[in-house]
Amino acid sequence: MCCPSATFAVWSSAWLNGAAASDDVLDSLQCWGQAHDVVAADPRAAETFDLPLAFNRPATPVQLLLALRSLAVTDVRLVLPAPGDVRGLGGGGPFTAAALRAGEAVVVSEIGYGLVPESIAEGLMRWTVFALPNPAHVEHVGLADAEHGMTDAIRSSAGALQTLNVARERPGVRAELSARLRSAPEPAWPAGTPGRALRVLQRAEEVDAILALAQTDEPGGALSASAAVQRADALRPLSDAIRTARAAAVNETVRVFAEQPDRL
To answer: CA 128, CA 115: separation in Å to the nearest integer?
Structure first.
């Protein structure tokens, strides 16, 4: 599943580097909403991208793609921030605040801008373009490191939960897990997406579904406030590892497309 920003980062990179058609990019976004529009958060972004400011009639994703091409962008990156982790966002300000609310963003570090998606109505996703106050650097994490980090976090989280005595078997857990995985959106990925990146994304989705179940009390049961805090602390490294793995898989895919241009 990952998120709308991941879909946009991968497909727009494929299009910008000649590995996909513009219609493919637009079709890929349908997984997250039947309609998408685009606005600028500030005058600088509005001028650079030739976009309307918020509260005016929005532009279309086609206009956003054409602006990226006219600006000679070849490399867009996924960032998955969380409270206490704002790496890759280029400092504070409106973009950081919006990205933290969404839990995701696309960073175009080449030109100093960022995009944040927001579901504003049923079936409608709005993308807002922000000028970054400072240069943004998205840290490179190799897929092998991301996979190992996820595996280590699974082990440490399981051990911590056992110690806290909150890792209990519960009836129907396998059915719950299968239902969560089936209900998640299934975005398509461009031809040429690295197989290992796809495997890391799939593994991250599976672990994330397990994490969601681990954060849910048994029906009819409840943890004390202190136990709930301890559980959250025990699971936080796993949540961080999942975010890292997803971003690593998406950004490795972007890197591959950026280094193999003009394939169409």
So the answer is: 5
Picking from 251, 161, 159, the residue whose alpha carbon sits closest to that of residue 200 is 251
Answer yes or no: are the C-beta atoms of 71 and 156 closer than 8 Å. Answer: no
Whether 138 has a pLDDT exceeding 70, the answer reads yes
CA gap 53, 185 in Å, rounded: 30
Instruction: Locate 220 and state its tokens.
Output: 């009819």
With a cut of 60, say whether residue 27 has pLDDT above it.
yes
State how far the Cα of 206 lies from the Cα of 132, in Å rounded to an integer.
Answer: 34
User: Which residues does 209 contact at the CB level (< 8 Å), separation at least 6?
Assistant: 177, 180, 181, 184
Binned at pLDDT 50, 70 and 90, residue 16 comes out as very high
Tokens of 105: 């963003």
Give the strand pairing for 124-131 and 35-40: parallel
Q: Cα–Cα distances in Å, from 243 out to 20, 77, 104, 187?
A: 26, 14, 10, 18
For residues 60 and 40, what is the distance between their CA atoms, to the nearest angstrom? 12
Highest mean pLDDT of the ranges 60-64, 91-95, 183-187 = 60-64
CA 8 to chain centre: 9
Compute the C-alpha angle 43/47/52, nearest 5°.
70
Measured distance CA(205)–CA(210) in Å, rounded:
9
pTM equals 0.86
Which residue is it, tokens 């301890």?
A: 230
Is pLDDT above 60 for 197? yes
The span from the CA of 131 to the CA of 118, in Å, is 17
Q: Which helix (H) or strand (E) holds 213?
A: helix 195-214
Per-residue pLDDT of 89-112, as tens digits, reads: 988 899 999 999 999 999 999 999
The mean pLDDT value for 28-49 works out to 96
